[in-house]
Design brief:
single chain; 200 residues; alpha+beta; Glutaredoxin; Glutathione S-transferase Yfyf (Class Pi), Chain A, domain 2; 8 helices
Length: 200
Amino acid sequence: MIKLYWAPRTRSLRALWVLEEAGAQYERVRLDLMAGEQKSAEYRLINPMAKVPALTDGPVAVAESGAICAYVAEAYPDAGLAPPPGDPARGRYLQWLFFSPGCIEAAFLAKSANVSIRSEAAGFGEFDRVFDVLEAAVQPGPWLLGERFSAADVMIGLDLHFGIDIFKLVPTRPALRAYVDRCLARPALQRAKAIEAAGA
């Protein structure tokens, strides 16, 4: 059985959401970050970076929330959270899955730290371009892959929710707002948020 190592108010919400979307049976192991439980030698065998989330599934250990989303999507193919190899949509799916840590989070960090980086030197390009690209991607709707919800929506949807609603770094744009609202309305995300709230 999958064992999820998590803590409230972290990227663990991504893992909770994707597991709920998949209908997976899983055990939650809440780590007390203030007490430093994530730094234990035992846990660092699972995630050497001493962060959450991470999961184990029998002998398999996976860290990094994007990798967890990819793993769960492929471990539960009947949930339809990832286009299979050979599906033309798989290229865009992988692009969006990696867009979150590669572009969005770096853009958030640069904006919040008020750091100016030449677009040619910044791995994420330009802050506004990141969200122009996302706006164009979600405009047709309802999801990044059209009618097909995927694990990539878990990554991008939560990033946009945090960027717009929590951190207030991204100005609200109608297409982004509508997309985030569709994500927030998903029953699996509502269950994940309830689990997080109960553990806070």
